[in-house]
Amino acid sequence: MNKPLILVVEDDAAVRNLIATTLETHNYRFHSASTGETAILEASSHNPDVVLLDLGLPDMDGIEIIKKIRTWSKMPIIVISARSEDMDKIDALDAGADDYLTKPFSVEELLARLRVTFRRLNDIQGSENAQGSVFLNGDLKIDYAAGCVYMNDEEIHLTPIEYKLLCLLAKNVGKVLTHTYITQEIWGSAWDNDVASLRVFMATLRKKIEKVSPEAKYIQTHIGVGYRMLKV
Prior knowledge:
- By secondary structure, this protein is an alpha/beta fold.
- It has two domains: 5-120, Response regulator (Rossmann fold, 3-Layer(aba) Sandwich), CATH 3.40.50.2300; 132-229, Orthogonal Bundle (Arc Repressor Mutant, subunit A).
- It contains eight helices and twelve strands.
- The strands form three sheets. It has a five-stranded parallel sheet, with helices on both faces.
- Helix 6 packs across helix 8.
- The longest helix has 24 residues, at 107-130.
- The protein is globular.
- The two termini are 26 Å apart.
């Protein structure tokens, strides 16, 4: 089996070398790019499994690169940036990034994010191959055909909105979904009161899942940004 190919897009030579050394040590194949133009060329010609992308490039903003790649590919993009404001994270995730790592970061954290991303890719491929109408994650089971949800084989009664929320998270396991993305998908709009409603529905959904399985940590909150379903 071919080792995964990672595209490292970073104009800071020291950071680029650190990432390259880390990937080499852990047997990942990689290509590097220090400008946005080169990054888009590399991404389109080599079709990497994952892109590690710095936002502050000399010729182009990283958000533009995400948008360009998203016009023709769903390849996972992990943003690595010194921009730590929630708004920057939200912009990158809404543009189509899958995850966000803030500089300075530890090598262990980078490797952990890569493992999560590859697990998610394998799960997606597995579910596509199975073409099943059932989603399984730990003790959580969603029967899409019947529209039923179970925890520990016990049926949980969800409202239509809670069910739609859970299905949306389930279809994006391991990926941070922003408030804007979720509210657009569920209600078709992204007003402030939609985000307030989302918090209420997410709280009741969590309560119903955790009532059956108190130890379960399926839904992770990214304060000020959004939510992610964890792979259990």
